[in-house]
Amino acid sequence: MTVIFYISAIVAIIATLRVITCAHAVHALLYFIVSLFSVAVIFFTLGAPFVAALEVIIYAGAIMVLFLFVVMLLGHELEDARRQRVGFRPGDWIGPVLLAAILAGELFYVFWSSGPPRAAASVIGPRAVGLSLFGPYLLGVEIASFLLLAGLVGAYHLGRRDEDAEAQSP
Amino acid sequence: MRELLWLIPILPLAAYVTLGVIGRRLPRWAVAVIGFVPVAASCGIAVAVASPYLSGQTSEPYVQVLWSWLQVGEFQPQIAFYLDPLSVVMTLVVTGVGSLILLYSTEYMDEDEEYSRFFAYMNLFVASMLTLVLGENLLVLFLGWEGVGMCSYLLIGFWYKDPDNGRAAQKAFIVTRVGDAAMLVGLFLLLSELGTLHIPLLMDRATAQWAVGAGLPSAAAALLLGGAVGKSAQLPLQVWLPDAMAGPTPVSALIHAATMVTAGVYLIARMHTLFLLAPIVLLLVAIIGTVTLLISGFSALVQRDIKRVLAYSTISQIGYMFLGLGVAAWSAAILHFMEHAFFKALLFLAAGVVIHALDDEHDLLKMGGLRKRLPFAFWTFLIAGAALAGFPILTSGFYSKDLILYSALVSSHGGFWLWLGGVVGVLLTGGYIFRLIFLAFFGELRREIGRLPRIRMKIPLIVLAVLSIVGGLFQIPRSLGGTPRFSNFLKPALGALPSGSLTIEATSELISSGAAILGIFIAYLWFLRRPKQVSHGALPAVPEMLQRYWFVDWGLDWLYDRVFVRPFVYIAHINRKDIVDRPFRRLEWIMAWTWRGFRITQTGRVSWYAVCVIGGVVVLLSMVVL
Amino acid sequence: MTVIPLNHVLILATILFGLGIVGLLVRRNVIFMLVSIEVMLNAAGLAFVGAGAHWQSADGQVMFLFILTMAAAEVSVGLALVLRLYHQLHTLDADAADLMKA
C-alpha cells in the first residue's frame, strides 16, 4: 500500500511540474489530468474511496473537460502561445521559485515531525461521508448549493453573446 | 420690576440678530423702527428697574443670575447682571444717549445703502456696552469689552470700500488690543491669586489678602489700567481715536464720545477697591490723565478737521475723568462722564448737522458764516461748547469739571500740580472749542449749504442741549449752596468724595471759571477779531514748528511707526518664505512621497498582484510559524 | 490497511501547492494561471483528505467535497470571464488588462 502511495506521489509531482512548464495548453491540461488521476490513487491508499471517485468524475471529468472546451474555443490564440517563449527565460523563474520555496520551507518546518503513528486505519466509505454530510454539515451543503447557483447564473450572464446584451451591460 | 433687568441688553441684541438676518429685505422705515425702538425700550425699562434706587428707596445691589457659563473646578462664572447705583448711572446714560443717537441716525444715514447693516452693528454695540456695565463678574464684563471693541472696528470701517477707513478701523482694533491683552493678563492674575472673578467677592478677598501697596495688587491694577488706557484712548494708546473719525458721525458720537471710550473709566471705578490697594498705580492713573488732557488739548488747538478737534477733545476730557479717578474721587469722574456724554454727543451730532449740510465737508477752513444758515446747529453747538469749556454756573460741564479739580486739590492722593494741570487744560479747552465755533459759524460764508436738518435730527439735539444745561443740577457744590445729590447717590457703590474746606472749593471754582473765560476770550481775540488768521486757522502767537508738532499728536504716530510697525514689517518681509511653515510643508512632502511610493505598486496587472498576495502569505505565515 | 504517516501526505501536498504557486506567478497566459489555481486547490484538498484519514473521520472528505464544489463554480465563472476578456482585448495575456493602473 505504501509503495503505491509513494509511486503515485512521484507521478503527481512530475506531472504537475510538466503542467507548469508546458507551452502547449492542451498538453498542460492533459498532464494535469494525469496528476489528478494519481492523486485519486493516493486517496484510495488513504482509505477514502468516495473522494477518489469524485476526484476522477468531477475534477478530471467535468472541470478539466470544461477547460479543454474553452481552450478549443480559443484555439488560434493558444497556438501562438507555443511560439511566445515568454516566461521561459531562467530569470523569470527565480522570483516565484524563491517565494514558493520559502513558503514550502516554512510548511515543511511545521509538518516535519508527526505524532506517533496509528496502529491501524480503516476505510471511510461513502456511507460515513453521506451521514456526515446530511448530519452536522447540512448547512454547508445548502450553502454550497447556493454557490453553485450563483456560479451558474454568473456564467450564464457572462457568457451571453447577443448584440443587445453587449450594448447594455458592461 | 427688577427682574426685567436682563431685558435691557437683550432687546438691542435681538434687534441686531433680526437686522442681521433679514435686514436687507425690510423697507427702510421698518429698519429704522427695529433699529431705534429696542434701545429706547431698554431705556424705559432701565428707568423702571432703576426707580427703587433713584427714589432713594434702596441702595442694596441686586444680582440677577441667568445661567452658569463655565465650570472649571472652583471657577464657576455665571452670566449674571449686577445692579447698583453705579451701573444704574451707566445704563441710563448708555441707553438714553444711545437711543437719541439712534433716532438721529435714522435721518442722518437715510441716503446710505447699507442702512440695515448700520443699525445692526449699532444695536450690537449697545448690547455689548450694556453687558459690560451690567456684568456681575469680570468675565461678563470682558465679554462686553471685547464686543464693543469688535463693534468699534466694524463701525469705524463701515464704509469699507475706501481702504483708508479699513486702515483706521484696523489701527483702532490693534491698538486697543494691546490694552486688551494687558487686561486679560490682569484678569488671569486676579483669578489665579484670588480664585474668583465675581466683583463683590473679588473686592472682599483682595482687601483681606493683600496689603496696601503690595506687589500683586499693584501688578493687577496696572494691568487693568493697561486695558483701560487702550479702550479709553489715553497716553500712550490714544493714537487710534483721531483716525477713528473715519466712521460715520453717529458712530463717533456714540462710541467714541459717550460710551465705549468711557469703558476704561467704568472699569477703574468698578474696581476702585483694588486700585486703592495700589497707591502707586492710582498715582499713575492721575498722572496719565493729566498729561493726556494737556497734550491732546494742545493737539486740538491746531486741527483742521472738525471731527478731529472733537476727537482730541474727547481724549482730553477722558483725561479729566482719569484724573478724577486717580485722586480717588470716583463719583466725580462718573459725574463728568455723564455730563461729557451729554455735551460731547451733542457736539458730534451738531457737527454731523454741519457735515450733512455741507455734503460731507469736514475741513474747518472751508466752513464759515454758518451761523446764519444753520441757526439750529449754531445754538446747540454753542451750548455744547460752553458746557465743554466749563462755562460757569450755566452749564453742566462746569460742575463736573470743578468737582474733579477741587478733589484733585484736596484729596490725599492728589496734589497741587495735578490741579494746576487741570486748570491749564480748562484754558486749552475753552480755546480750542471756541476756535472751532468761531471758524465754522462766524466770518464770511464760504460754501452754500445743501440739506437742512429735519425733526428726527432736531429732537435729539434739543434733548441733549437741555441736558447739557440742567445736568449740573445733580451736583451743586456746597459753596454755591446746593446739595451734592449725585455723589450721595453713588456713595453706597463708590464711597465718599474727598472733602476739604468750602473756601478752597470756592477758590478753585473761581480760578477754573476764570481760566475757561480766558480761553474763550483768547479764541475770540484770535479768531473773531482778526479775520486774517482765519484763512489758515493757525494760532498767531505760537511758533509754527510747535503747531506742526501738535498737529501730529506730539509725534506719537511717527514714534510708533518707527519703533513697532517698521521692524515688524521688516521681520515679516524677511520671513517671506515662512520658516514656521517649514515643518508642515515637510510633512506634506513626506505624504506626497509616500503616495508616490504606493502608486507604483498599483500596476493594474494581475500577475503582479498575485506575487504580492503570495508574498504577503509568506510573511504572515513566517510570523506565525517562527 | 497500512497507515501512511500524515506528515508525508502533508509534505506532498506542500510540494504540489508550491508548484501551483510557481505556475501562477510565472505564466502570463490567463488559462495557465487558472490551471495553476486548480493545482493549488487540489493540493489543499489532498491535505484535508489526508488529515481526515489520520483522524479517522469523514470530515476531511466532506471538506474536500466542498472544495470541489467551489472549484467547479469558480472555474465556470472564471472561464466565462476569460472568454469575455478575449472578446474585448483579443489576447490572453494577463498583463494586457491593466486599465486599473495608477
Tell me what you see in this structure.
The complex is a heterotrimer of chains A (170), B (626) and C (102). Chain A is an all-alpha fold. Chain A has helices at residues 2-21, 25-45, 49-73, 75-81, 90-111, 126-134, 138-159, 163-168. Chain A is globular. The termini of chain A are far apart. By secondary structure, chain B is mainly alpha-helical. In chain B, helix 10 (249-258) runs antiparallel to helix 15 (330-357), helix 13 (279-301) packs antiparallel against helix 14 (306-326) and helix 14 runs antiparallel to helix 15 (330-357). In chain C, 75% of the residues lie in helices and 0% in strands. Chain C is elongated, with a radius of gyration of 17 Å. Chains in contact: A-B, A-C, B-C. Chains A and C meet through helix 1, helix 2, helix 3, helix 4 and helix 5 of A and helix 1, helix 2 and helix 3 of C.
Strand order of the largest sheet of chain B: 1-2
What is the makeup of the main sheet of chain C? none
Give the strand tally of chain B: 2
Count of helix runs of chain B: 26
What is the general shape of chain C?
elongated
Question: Uncertain spans of chain C, ≥5 residues at pLDDT below 50?
Answer: none
Query: How far apart lie the N and C ends of chain B?
Result: 84 Å
Structural class of chain B: mainly alpha
- Biggest protein-protein interface? A-C, 84 and 72 residues
Structural class of chain C: mainly alpha
Number of helices of chain C: 3
* Overall geometry of chain B: globular
Biggest beta sheet attributes of chain B: 2 strands, antiparallel
Mean pLDDT of chain B: 85
Q: Percentage of helical residues of chain B?
A: over 70%
Rg for CA atoms of chain B: 28 Å
Find the count of extended strands of chain C (DSSP E, 2+ residues): 0
What series of H and E elements makes up the topology of chain B? Answer: HHEEHHHHHHHHHHHHHHHHHHHHHHHH
Proportion of residues in helical segments of chain C? over 70%
What's the arrangement of secondary structure elements?
The complex is a heterotrimer of chains A (170), B (626) and C (102).
Chain A: H1 2-21, H2 25-45, H3 49-73, H4 75-81, H5 90-111, H6 126-134, H7 138-159, H8 163-168
Chain B: H1 7-22, H2 28-54, E1 62-68, E2 78-83, H3 85-108, H4 115-134, H5 138-156, H6 163-194, H7 199-209, H8 215-231, H9 240-243, H10 249-258, H11 263-270, H12 272-276, H13 279-301, H14 306-326, H15 330-357, H16 370-373, H17 375-389, H18 396-410, H19 416-441, H20 455-470, H21 485-494, H22 502-529, H23 544-551, H24 556-574, H25 582-601, H26 606-625
Antiparallel strand pairs in B: 1-2
Chain C: H1 6-26, H2 30-54, H3 59-89
Helix pairs in contact in C: 1-2, 2-3
